[in-house]
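Hi again,

Forgot to attach this to my earlier email, sorry! This is the prediction with (6S)-5,6,7,8-tetrahydrofolate bound. I've pasted everything inline since the attachment limit keeps bouncing my files.
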Amino acid sequence: MKIIGEKINGTRRRVAQAIEERDGAFIQDLAIKQAQAGAAWLDVNAGTHPDREVDDLIWLVEVVQPVVQVPLCLDSANPLALAAALKVVAQTPMINSISGEPKRLEEILPLVAEHGCPVIALAMDDKGIPERCEQRLEVARHLIAATRAAGVPDDRVYLDPLAMTLATNTRSALITLDTMRAIRNEFPDAHLTLGLSNISFGLPARSYVNRAFLTLALAAGLDSAILDPLDREMRATLAAARLVLGHDPHCLGYTRAYRAGLFSRPGDSS
Ligand code: THG
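C-alpha cells for the complex follow:
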C-alpha cells in the first residue's frame, strides 16, 4: 500500500496562504514530515487560481524537491501547469490526473506517455461523476483503452473510482467500493487509488470515517491512496487492516509499526 501525502494542497487555507506569501519554510516542513511518515509520493496542488496556477505549481515543485527524496504527484487539471512543472521536476513525477473529459485526456495523456509517468485516471468525464458503478466502470474502460493506445502499461495507471462525501449521499462509499471491485476484477494489472479524506468532507470527527473507509477499501483492492500520512490513527489502522487481510507476511509491518510507537499516543509509554 503506497501513500500519496495530501497535505500540500492549495485548497487548504493555511497552504493557500503560504503559497500566496511565498512562505517556503512552511511548505518544506509539510514535505519533510510527510516523507518521514512514509509517503511514497507527495501530492502538490497549487489551488484554484487559473491565472496563477502555472507560477504557483512551479514554485511549489522548486521549494519541495530540494528537501525530500520522494517523487512528487503533480495534482492539476491544467495541461499547461503540468507541462511547466514537468520541465522543473528532478524525478519522474506521478501525474494527477487524466479523466474521461476529452480535452484533458488529449492534452495530458501525451505528457504522461512522453515522460514515462505513473498517472491517476479519474472515473469521470465531461458529464461529471457518474452516479452508478457500471457507468464509472465504463469510463475506466475508456481510460484504459486510451492509456494502452498511448503505450502506457496498465501497471503505470492508478484508477481512481472517486470518493465523494457521505454527508450528501450515504450510499457514496458503497458505490466507490463496488466500482473498485469491478475495476480490480477487469484490470488486475492496474492500480487503484482514492482521495480518501473526501469521504468525510463536512462531517465531524472525520478520522473515524476515514479509517472505516480505508479498511473497507483495502479489502476491495485499494493499493494506494491520497491521505494524511501525519494521521497516526490512520497509519495504525492501515497496519492492522493489512495484517487482517493477509497482506503482511510474518506480521512484520504490524510489529514494526508497534515498535515505532505508532499505537501509543505521543508521550504514552504503554
Ligand atoms: N482524487 C485525486 N486527487 C485528489 C482527490 C481525489 N486530489 C485532491 C483531493 N481529492 C485529495 N486531497 C485532499 C487534501 C486535503 C483534504 C482532503 C483531500 C482535507 N484536508 C482537511 C482540511 O484541509 O481541512 C483536513 C486535513 C488537514 O487539515 O490536514 O480534507 O479524490 N486523484
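The mean pLDDT is 96. Residues 6-7, 9, 12, 45, 75, 96-97, 120, 122, 160, 163, 195, 197-198, 226, 228 surround (6S)-5,6,7,8-tetrahydrofolate (CB under 6 Å).

That should be everything now.

G.
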